[in-house]
Automatic annotation (TrEMBL):
This is Alkyl hydroperoxide reductase AhpD. Residues 100-173 form the Carboxymuconolactone decarboxylase-like domain. The keyword Membrane does not apply. Keywords: Antioxidant, Disulfide bond, Oxidoreductase, Peroxidase, Redox-active center.
Length: 176
């Protein structure tokens, strides 16, 4: 399976998603590790088996084993953090924001790859999961270290298109 195979599975009404998948995979302001790590983390956050398999297969020749593991870890840790911090942000009781999270998240400090790439992947997953606190936090870190707004936007564009592809295929499966 590959991104091309994933694109071929999308119905005609999702032509824009097909075209966006192709263009985002082809070029852009991110280096290969940043781009393919974003694709992998976003696919895992999408939770759609076919999307995950296609994107991981495509990325296997483009990411080191360490980067592949870190991209998976970014999706995993943000799956936890996005729920927790979205709750803290949305709940009316402000006492929660003063309490320690008491959640283990050491992978953020030692991801096994360039920390900025990991933070960018966490940002993309946070966009998928809709956690404003995490989006702001990760955006501040990557921007402070030199990632441009165009690079951040590209990572979030990847996340949005991967998520749309997964949602479309989930919807098609439900209709069959």
């Amino acid at each position: 399976m590959s991104i091309e195979a994933l694109r071929d599975q999308l119905p005609d009404y999702a032509k824009d998603i097909r075209l966006n998948l192709g263009s985002l995979a082809a070029d852009g302001p991110l280096n290969d590790q940043q781009k393919w790590g974003t694709f992998v983390a976003s696919a895992l956050a999408s939770r759609h088996e076919g999307t995950i398999k296609a994107i991981v297969a495509e990325a296997e020749g483009k990411l080191s084993e360490e980067a592949m593991t870190a991209a998976k870890a970014a999706a995993t840790i943000m799956g936890m953090n996005n729920v927790y911090y979205r709750f803290v942000h949305l709940v009316s009781e402000k006492t929660y924001s003063t309490m320690p999270a008491n959640l283990r998240m050491t992978v953020i400090g030692k991801p096994g790859v360039d920390k900025i790439d990991f933070e960018l992947w966490c940002l993309a997953v946070s966009a998928i999961n809709g956690c404003g606190m995490c989006i702001d936090s990760h955006d501040a870190v990557v921007r402070k270290s030199g990632i441009t707004t165009e690079q951040v936007q590209t990572a979030v564009r990847i996340a949005s298109v991967v998520h749309a592809a997964a949602a479309t295929l989930d919807g098609e499966a439900a209709l069959s």
